[in-house]
Each structure stands twice: as C-alpha cells, then as structure tokens.
Amino acid sequence: MHCALYSVGSCRSCQWLGKPYPQQLAEKQHHLQLLLAEQPVAQWLEPVTGEQSAFRNKAKMVVSGSVERPLLGMLHRDGTPVDLCACPLYPSHFSVVFSVLKSFIARAGLTPYNVERKRGELKYLLLTESTYNGGIMLRFVLRSESKLAQLRTALPWLQQQLPQLQVISANIQPVHMAIMEGEREIPLTEQQMLEEQFNQIPLYIRPQSFFQTNPQVASRLYAIARDWVHALGISSMWDLFCGVGGFGLHCAQPQTRLTGIEISAEAIACAKQSAQRLGLQHVDFQALDSARFASAEGRVPELVLVNPPRRGIGQDLCDYLHQMAPGYILYSSCNAQSMAKDISMLADYRIERVQLFDMFPHTAHYEVLTLLVRH
To answer: How far is CA 9 from each of CA 18, 96, 371, rounded to the nearest angstrom?
Structure first.
C-alpha cells in the first residue's frame, strides 16, 4: 500500500507500512506463538487476512484549523495538525464525504477546538459506514451545546448533499483531555440505529456502541466462531462483553439458550433488535458488568464466550470460570498478551485451536480466536 503521508513522514500510524505484508503477517504469528509457548496448542490455523487498503468502515477525525479552512485528521504530540482525508485506509468515496463536511463546518460556523488555547467548539467528527446498505452514521463531538442551534439550522443542507446520512447526533464532551467522547448524546435525526449485516445476520450500531473497524475480517471472525461452536453441539452459552451481539447471534441456533452481557445499554439495545429480527426465542441480552453477572449467576452454560477489552478478563473472572467449569471457553481477544495471561490462570483448560485475524494491517495489532476445552 502506498501512502504519501507516510512517505513524507507526516503520519506514522501504520508503523509497519515499510515491511512487506507477508513479513508483517509472519511477525504477528510468531509473536502469538511466543506468547502461548508455555501452553500446548493442539491446532494452529492459518491467519485470516483481508484487504490491505480501503478496508476501514470508520473514521475518527480530529477537527483543527479554522472555521473557514478546517482540517480533518489528527494532531501530533506537539500540536501540529495533519489532514488525513487522503488516508488510503479509507474507501475512496470517503473523500467526497470529507469534502462536504469541511464545507458544512464553515457553513454552520462550527469553530474547530484549539487544544492549546482551550477555545472553539467542534472537537471530532466520527463516521461509521454500513457495508450492508451504504448508510452513514455521523457524530459531531462538541465542547458544549452553544453551537447546537446553528448545527440544527444548517443540517438540512448537509442531508441534501449527503443523502446516505441515516443517523446523525451530537456528543457533548466538555473535558479538556484526550477523551474521544462524553456521556451525553443528543440525537439530530429520528433514526438512531445504523443497520449492518454480516453473514446474513442483521446487526445494529447506535452512536455510543462499539463496532469493528474492519468489516471484511470481522465478518469472517464471526463466521469462524459460529462454525467452531456449531461443531461442538452445545445447547447453552453465555456471550460476555457481547457488544452489539455479533458473536452470540452468529453462534446461537433456534434451540440455543443464549445470555449476552455487556455494560453498554446502547449496545444491548442493538443486540435485542437483532435477536427480534432473527426470531430467536431463547435469547436474553442484559446491560450488566460481565464479571459481576458471571459471579452472581447460578446456572452453568456449556460454553462461555468472552470478548473483553484490551485489559482481558482478569483474575476474578478467570477464578470464577475455573470454579464454574463450563465445558468450553471461546476467547476472542484484541490483545493477545492479556489473553495469554488469562489462559495461564485457567489451569483446567487446554488450548484446542488458535487462529489469528489480521484486523489491522501495517500495524503490530491483531485479533485472535482461541478455543479452550476443559480437561
């Protein structure tokens, strides 16, 4: 992948762009094997890859510059702005969207936030595109509500220019820190769910719910998890840290008793919508802390699927899983280091199979799916 910004040194977010892609993949696989070197692995599967460019369905743009000439991209540590509208990780049609948004910022008088001076209103633009129908969710991250009326007034022009905008909202983030968004979300369109679809499974994305940034590889991750679970012939499972329900909804069959747990009420609303669309009768999604739910729940499912944040599931949940002793644990991880640490605490389980998913080409990051079977 050629990137002009990388070539001139303006952006080095893709730290590994100078390495041939086969070498990137080999180094990631070697890193994973080193992390699990003390654990016997019955089966290593080939890494799953996707496109090396134009694969992102999301853009998180820092807004800088002036209201007349805004820049969308990022800030270096010294405060120097870099416009990333030409980043080759985005699909080519994103450039049209970015161009219209720059015009809209000027038209609506949304002054970009200046970090050094602590002045201005518009901090970020957050975009998510559905690969299912091409619809876009757009979120304006503002310092306060002072420009909200101007934003609403100018919005019809933006919707006319970009009819693919299906979900629009404003997030209020008043804190002068590197925090992407605040707690308060103000809807600016009646529709507040963006529909996506992976492997014929309907999924919904709300403004404050997490969703993968590489839909091509993510859909294969869900499909492979489904195949592994179906091969086990289980009838009950938990999906902890379930997000919008992608794993559980793929793995559940009509007779499966599925409980999905996620701290985000926004994500749980999406998961319930999907389950209703699929007509699943034995599914229960709840907005709770996953570790607290597991320790309080009396019934033991046949399989527990965990998809935790980068910190992993931790000592307490590992101890409880060890105590409750489900037959299988399916661990999906975005941080193999914390996963390896967690697995070392699950002494009664052996690793049946492991597969790497290269969700983030040109970086050291990757995701991994691991099936653990109780001895």
So the answer is: 12, 25, 41
179 sits in the region (left: phi over 0; alpha: psi -120 to 50; else beta) called beta
- Confirm or deny that 262 is annotated as ligand binding: yes
What tokens does 158 get? Answer: 């933006």
In angstroms, the CA 320 to CA 294 distance is: 7
Kind of pairing, strands 41-44 and 194-198?
A: unpaired
- Cβ pair 24, 332 in contact under 8 A: no
Helix, strand, coil in percent for the chain, rounding step 5: 30, 30, 40
* Helix-helix angle 21-35:336-344, to 10 degrees: 20
Residue 245, sorted as left (phi over 0), alpha (psi -120 to 50) or beta, turns out to be left
Instruction: Indicate which residues carry an active-site annotation.
Output: 334
Q: Under a CB-based contact definition with an 8 Å cutoff, are residues 68 and 106 in contact? A: yes
The SS3 call for residue 65 is strand
pLDDT digits (tens, 9 = 90+) for 13-56: 999 999 999 999 999 999 999 999 999 999 999 999 999 999 99
- State which H helix or E strand residue 81 sits in: strand 81-83
Please say if the pLDDT value at position 290 is more than 90: no
Q: What is the pLDDT of residue 78?
A: 84
Residue 299: per-residue pLDDT: 78
User: Do residues 291 and 323 lie in contact, with contact meaning Cβ atoms separated by under 8 Å?
Assistant: no
- Phi/psi for 238 (5° steps) reads -110, 145
Q: Are 320 and 290 in contact (CB under 8 A)?
A: no
Contacts of 150 (CB under 8 A, 6+ apart): 108, 109, 110
Q: DSSP character for 264?
A: -
Radius of gyration in angstroms for the set of CA atoms belonging to the chain, rounded to a whole number: 22
| Domains of the chain (ranges, CATH numbers) | 4-52+214-374 (3.40.50.150), 58-191 (2.40.50.1070)
Three-state DSSP at 217 gives helix
Residue 11 labeled ligand binder? yes
Q: Has 241 been labeled as part of a binding site?
A: yes
Nearest to 222, CA basis, from 71, 65, 127, 359: 359
Evaluate whether 371 touches 324 at the Cβ level (below 8 Å). no
Q: Are strands 81-83 and 122-129 parallel, antiparallel or unpaired?
A: unpaired
- How much is the pLDDT for 295? 67
